[in-house]
Each structure stands twice: as structure tokens, then as C-alpha cells.
Amino acid sequence: MDLRAVLLAWLLACCAPAFAAGAEEDREAQGIRSVITAQLQAFAEDDADAAFDTSTPAVRESMGHAGYFLALVRGQYPMVYRPVAISFLDVELKSREAWQLVRVIDQDGRPWVVMFALERQGDGTWRIGGCAVSEMRGKPA
């Protein structure tokens, strides 16, 4: 066996688990972004049921009804309810929890950072358990 073959075998043995872990994290991040995007799209269409479906069972139980959920978001989180633009920032993943930062521009052009808290469900899907919002200070980028 020549040296190149040995080195290639060694690189594959050492690096394959890291590449696999990176691919798994990418899939998880995509699933997280997908559920957030689905919720924002449902808000844009005033589809209370679809927006409610992206929430955790605990949120659905505490709210009781999709219409109440939509009214709460409309009244308390207008920057989430009708953003003009969004961009995904950092995501932090743990085994059954994730926190996704999203930069949001509201109807008045003000920038916000929204931290979505998500929980992995028994079927492997992600659902949104809540969000925290902070207005970005300074000059918008």
C-alpha cells in the first residue's frame, strides 16, 4: 500500500464522523428554519390554524384556540406578525431544544432580533415554544 492510500484511509477514518455530524447539524438547522418560515408565512396569510400548528403542544394547550394565538401575536409581536424582511442568524442546538436568532425588519423599517425557542417533538419535528424580541439599537445595516 502506498503512502497516499494510507493517508487517504486515515483522513477518511478521522474526518468522516465530523463531516457526518456537520451534515446532521445542517439538517437540524434546516428543519428549524423551515418551521419558523412556515409560521411567519401563516401569519402573513392570517392562517391561524397553520400558525398554531407550528407551536408546541404546551403552547397550544395554554392558548386553547388558534384565533387567540393569532390575536396575541398580532397585538404583542407586530414585528413577527408582519415582517418586511427576515434573515436567519445563529442557531444553538441541544438534543431536544434549539434557539434560533432571526433578524427582522418591521413595517416601520426598524430592525429587531427575535430569538425563537424550539422543542424537538417525539416524531423528530421541531415546534416553536416561544420567542423573545429585542430591538436592535444603532444604525440599521
Can you put this structure into words, describing what you see?
- The protein has 141 residues and is an alpha+beta fold.
- It has one domain: Nuclear Transport Factor 2, Chain: A, CATH 3.10.450.
- It has a four-stranded antiparallel β-sheet.
- The mean pLDDT is 87.
Task: Present the secondary structure layout.
Layout: H1 3-44, H2 48-53, H3 57-63, H4 66-76, H5 78-81, E1 85-93, E2 97-105, E3 111-120, E4 126-135
Antiparallel strand pairs: 1-2, 2-3, 3-4
Helix content: 40-55%
- From the alpha carbons, calculate the radius of gyration and give it in angstroms: 19 Å
| Largest beta-sheet details | 4 strands, antiparallel
The first-level CATH class is given as Alpha Beta
Order of adjacent strands in the largest pleated sheet: 1-2-3-4
Average of per-residue pLDDT values: 87
Q: Span between N and C termini?
A: 55 Å
| Number of discrete domains | 1
The CATH topology, please?
A: Nuclear Transport Factor 2, Chain: A
